[in-house]
Amino acid sequence: MRFVSSASETGGSEMGASDPLRLVLMGVAGSGKTSVGLALAALLGARYLDGDDLHPPANIAKMAAGIALTDADRAPWLAAVGDLLAPPGRWIVGCSALKRSYRDIIRNHAHSPVIFVHLAGSRALIGARMAARTGHFMPESLLDSQFATLEPPGPEEGAITVNIALPLPDLVADIAERLG
After folding, report:
1. Using one digit for the tens of pLDDT, what is the confidence trace for 102-124?
2. Burial of 92 from C-beta contacts in 10 A (0-12 / 13-18 / 19+)
3. Which of the four pLDDT bands, split at 50, 70 and 90, describes residue 69?
4. How far apart are CA 60 and CA 168, in angstroms?
């Protein structure tokens, strides 16, 4: 699994390192969850995990073959994401969490408040990013199904929504500032 254990291991600051943090960077494939997560973990003294690493092999095989996952396919994966967030600590997980019901599964398994940060961007920008990346199992052909499934968080969820068109350092600074 791709972990960054703490800011001290990555050269970042230990801002609020004793305060608990359970944060999910959510958004469609290609929205930058891993890049933002690694940078934010370094800044906040948190551990980052790419939620893709929690998918069962059958899910990876389906997506690699260009087959969209069903809610039944996603349920055990979402539970695993929530379970990862349950222990005390400072956690940042990259997970699409496209629907409110998916975010609810994560919240229920975490047994603690979870902050969702929606990495939002246009289809054109994200499609261009996906076309340029290499070595990822998720094909660009599934991006339209991701956007069709996406239910942006409503105000009652208390999520933070950020524009991924910002340069990475500005985007990470914006999230950190909005987290307080």
Report:
1. 999 999 999 999 999 999 999 88
2. buried
3. confident
4. 27
